[in-house]
Design brief:
This protein is of the alpha+beta class. Helix content is 28%, strand content 26%. It contains 17 helices and 33 strands. The longest helix is centred in the last third of the chain and has 31 residues.
Length: 752
């Protein structure tokens, strides 16, 4: 077909743009119509006229019909609704006068992973587009790197009408100008990115998240800030539905439905992945079963579900929602051990001596029917009131033996308070308190630890790959810093001895003063290394265990799923799926075996991300709860000391805030790094870690989670100084580093 020659008409240009399989810019139009020299200049003027007339829209490199979209283009995700992602063209001109078209992202199903799986707000895609039924669809070709660093903030409009992006991260101190609001209005929470590459570049809004103080907004902030995958791809959701429909094949499983196994969980638990049973064996010991949801039966290696779970690494728990590792049809239903319903389980059978030692164990795939799901508080009440309960009595008797073995092992015993946010039906804060530590919590934890140890040792006996839960001993640098710090108030730590958890426990037991004990406990915690996952065993220092692996929470931890798969291989527990329904195997894939170190690093990073997001969200809820109590006086404990001021925690609530050095008094204060104290140069007044103060709440910012305190009546003085103090040390050589707990000897879920 002969190409048209000469300057094209407006309609010819529109027809060419509509039919072009790729981006159509001035160069492509000129080539199509054979334009040269002067004709190219005339084409440029014609395209400018067409843009002014509202016929076309776009940049010089990619024109499209006004209101239309190129056949292949870059899109940006701006909304995720009911599991579906929606996008707009990434290069849409905000001042064109025409709102950008909204495209529904259609992710592929079938053998390959959908390129847009696990999409998040702000993600950029190269996509093929089509107009269908008056709307637009986008078929992802590949996910693109972020155009620039995404920032989250609050839109503010100053007196001159200029828009600013106020940060929601308390580490960011300054607002940034907004050049392109993208439809956002003052007071809305948005995602934005720099318009240019300059450090002082203004921002353009890429997605509007809504009211920052609305119910569920605080967790949404953390989800987007930390890039936590929120929506599952269509392929994974379809596979989850197929998996949920699998028959249990009870004939191939051990039938444990006759055992009165119970699940003891928090009253607000969203899923139930473990349950326990125990009874005396008539010979002074006990038989016990720890039943764990058989997630490996439903989530097969190489499938879409497995890929999504690997990306997430773990579930993330917020006061108002859970971002699950698996779709809810599995995590909250089919895999959840509900009372009275047959469920697939991986059962750990334990024989326990009167001294609490596990003398033998075996693993089986089983069918269980949970007799009861009860809250920790109810389990504790039944024991405390002496109610005859066959479900509880055997467990408690067996636990007392396990507790004796634990005391003999002497693991690290740090009583760390946990904050609990209670919401009403509308998602508003009803109460915030410190969670009470009950014997019922210890019962479940000790059974889980026993099962985790049994799983690690069983896999070692079969020479199977293992994802260990590792907590290494404190390194020398941290121990030296701890030694020097303890010396500032007359306590010794001899580094020539073997450092064990029991050494720290005895140190804490010798401290009678509650304030000083809290201080030393915090210092011991700071000295610990961070727990992580890995294929090479280095023991678990905090639990005083040589071999430890996570087995008990495969609904919410990918590490546990890998341990289950290794058990399937090691003990011949394979259960194939019906032909064509799902990938056939439930054991470890060759990829898992070859790449266990890389997988372990990834899920360790995912765990740290989840813990940070959960902590920040609690901080925001606490700040929102306190925002209506500005001016009240609280009993606070100093938890951090820096040159610029003190960090203090409300003792009864756990809220952390700053006491700027400027409000401590008119005199000059010296920062004693080794003693972790601020010392008044004229008066000698000292503010040190662990001191208890009465402080007035001056500010509470729900968006950042930041609190600010000030002294009562303009003068601050410790009301409960800790311990004996030695003379001030001005030349301490060991800085404490940044505020906050560096160690993670606990982890998501039970059993550490």
């Amino acid at each position: 077909m002969t190409k048209p020659q000469g300057l094209p008409t407006r309609q010819q240009i529109l027809d060419f743009i509509a039919a072009s399989p790729a981006a159509a810019g001035k160069r492509e139009i000129a080539r199509e119509f054979g334009l040269k020299g002067e004709e190219k200049i005339r084409l440029k003027a014609l395209l400018r006229d067409m843009a002014e007339e509202g016929l076309i829209d776009g940049r010089k490199s990619a024109f499209h019909r006004m209101g239309g979209v190129p056949r292949v283009t870059v899109l940006r995700i701006t909304a995720i609704e009911d599991g579906e992602a929606f996008a707009i063209p990434d290069a849409w001109e905000p001042d064109s006068g025409v709102p950008p078209p909204r495209l529904r992202v259609v992710e592929r199903s079938g053998g390959r992973r959908a390129p847009g799986a696990a999409l998040r707000l702000g993600d950029r895609l190269l996509a093929r587009t089509e107009e269908r039924g008056g709307g637009w669809l986008a078929h992802p070709m590949k996910k693109l790197p972020a155009a620039a660093d995404q920032a989250m903030g609050l839109v503010e409009i100053d007196g001159s009408g200029k828009a600013w992006l106020a940060p929601i991260d308390k580490r960011v101190r300054h607002a940034a100008p907004i050049a392109e609001l993208g439809g956002a209005v003052a007071g809305q929470l948005v995602l934005a990115e720099p318009v240019g590459r300059s450090p002082r570049a203004a921002m353009r809004v890429t997605a509007v998240l809504g009211d920052p103080l609305a119910p569920r907004a605080f967790s949404l902030i953390a989800i987007h800030k930390h890039g936590i995958p929120l929506a599952f791809g269509e392929e994974a959701l379809a596979e989850a539905e197929r998996a949920a429909a699998l028959p249990l094949d009870a004939g191939q499983r051990e039938d444990l439905t006759h055992l009165p196994i119970i699940a003891i969980d928090p009253s607000d638990a969203r899923d139930h992945d473990d349950a326990i049973w125990a009874q005396a064996d008539g010979e002074g010991g006990f038989r016990a079963v720890v039943a764990i949801a058989d997630v490996a039966f439903y989530v097969r290696p190489g499938g879409a579900l497995d890929r999504e779970a690997r990306i997430r690494g773990n579930s993330v728990y917020f006061p108002d929602r859970v971002v699950p590792m698996l779709p809810e049809v599995l995590s909250a239903d089919v895999c959840s051990l509900k009372a009275g319903v047959p469920r697939a389980a991986m059962a750990c059978h334990l024989t326990i001596s009167a001294q609490g030692q596990v003398t033998s164990s075996r693993f089986s795939r089983a069918v269980v029917r949970i007799a009861e799901v009860i809250a920790y508080e109810e389990a504790q009440r039944r024991i405390d009131t002496g109610v005859a309960d066959p479900h509880i009595a055997g467990l408690w008797a067996c636990w007392q033996a396990l507790a004796r073995a634990r005391d003999h092992r002497d693991p690290l015993d740090l009583d760390l308070p946990e904050r609990r946010v209670q919401l009403d039906a509308a998602g508003r804060i009803a109460a915030i308190s410190l969670r009470e530590r009950l014997d019922a919590h210890r019962v479940v934890e000790d059974f889980m630890i026993a099962a985790n140890v049994a799983a690690a040792r069983a896999l070692e006996s079969r020479v199977q790959p293992i994802v260990y839960r590792i907590h290494e001993p404190p390194n020398r640098e941290k121990l030296v810093a701890l030694k020097d710090y303890l010396a500032t108030f007359g306590r010794k730590l001899a580094l020539g001895q073997v450092i064990t958890p029991g050494l720290f426990n005895r140190m804490l037991k010798d401290i009678a003063d509650p304030s000083e004990k809290a201080l030393v406990m915090e210092a011991v915690l700071r000295s610990q290394t961070q727990a992580y996952y890995g294929p090479r065993n280095a023991g678990h220092f905090g639990l005083a265990l040589g071999s430890y692996a996570h087995f008990t929470s495969p609904i919410r931890r990918y590490a546990d799923l890998l341990v289950h798969r290794a058990l399937v291989d090691g003990f011949g527990l394979e259960q194939p799926a019906p032909k064509g329904k799902l990938p056939p195997a439930t054991g470890l894939s060759e990829r898992d075996r070859a790449d266990l170190a890389h997988v372990s690093e990834a899920i360790s990073a995912s765990e740290r991300r989840a813990m940070e997001a959960e902590r920040e969200t609690i901080d925001r809820y606490v700040a929102a709860w306190l925002a209506g109590r500005i001016g009240e006086v609280f009993a606070c404990r100093i938890t951090g000391v820096q040159r610029f001021g003190l960090f203090a925690t409300i003792i009864a609530l756990g809220g952390d805030g700053l006491v700027p050095i400027s409000v401590l008094g008119a005199e000059r204060f010296h920062h004693d790094e080794a003693a972790r104290a601020l010392v008044g140069e004229a008066s000698g007044t000292r503010f040190a870690m662990g001191d208890t103060l009465s402080l007035r709440l001056a500010e509470a910012n729900p968006l950042t989670g930041a609190l600010k305190f000030e002294p009562v009546d303009g003068a601050a003085a410790p009301i409960e100084p800790r311990g004996r103090r030695l003379p001030e040390r001005r030349n301490g050589s060991h800085a404490t580093g940044r505020r906050g707990r560096p160690a993670n000897i606990r982890h998501q879920g039970r059993g550490r």
